[in-house]
Amino acid sequence: MATGNISDASLKYFEEKKIKSLLEEAMHDLLLDLPQDPLTYLLERFDTPTSLRLIVSGPPGSGKGTQCDLLARAFGLKHISVGDILRQAATEETERGKKIALFVTKGTLVPDDLFVNIVIEKLREAEQSHKGWLLDGFPRTRAQAIYLQKAGISPQRFFYIDVSDEISSKRLLSRRGDATADKTNRGGSDRVPAERKVSVRMDDTPDVIGTRLKYFAARKNELVECYAPFYVHIDGSLDVESVFEEIKIQVTSLDVFVQGHHE
């Protein structure tokens, strides 16, 4: 940032009061809505707390879904799970559904043109209603991140839940058909929602799991690079409660944006 003749005291004030973040938030909303009267719009937006926008990423089996469920309930966020969107679409007897199913059953990436617009639409709905959102498992590639950026959609935090391939594989294989798998493998928490306790999925087979992990690892670095300013590393090998507490600490550090959604 060019500082010109700004004094050290002014720069300190700028940082302490999070002026840069406030301006970035205002510009994000302005470019999203493109109002006819931008000045009045900005005045109104400055008077309204900004909603949370979070992305949770990590390899298959890292516990993204469980953490997103907990975060959505704790902060009143709209949970947008791209994995759930794709698996639901894969069951539909439509041309698009059948195409998506071919990729999901093999554990390979679904072409962007089949689903990215659906994700962007859901994010826009959440933002226009001024309800915070939580994006689960997307983007997975640089190209997908660029789609979001071009749509004027960016997070305040990008959480990367990191686990080894060994832990990922063990969790994914254990949860097949086991109604208590999530509770056992993710630290024994009773806070995991009931709908997450049973997970029999078409992409949880040994061969497909290996393919999914391979595809994710190949694109991990480019994805982290895209969201470097918002990146937060989380140790996903810990129990579910510890992981959740670490993420929650990071979210509540954004308290200038959070309005009455704490537990």
Automatic annotation (TrEMBL):
Residues 175-194 have a biased composition (Basic and acidic residues). GO terms for molecular function: ATP binding; nucleobase-containing compound kinase activity. Residues 174-194 are annotated as: Disordered. GO terms for biological process: nucleobase-containing compound metabolic process. The keyword Nucleotide-binding applies. InterPro entries: Adenylat/UMP-CMP_kin, Adenylat_kinase_CS, P-loop_NTPase. Pfam families: ADK. CDD domains: ADK. Keywords: Kinase, Nucleotide-binding, Transferase. The keyword Nucleotide-binding applies. It comes from the Eukaryota. Belongs to the adenylate kinase family. This is Adenylate kinase. It comes from Strigomonas culicis. The lineage of its organism: Eukaryota, Discoba, Euglenozoa, Kinetoplastea, Metakinetoplastina.
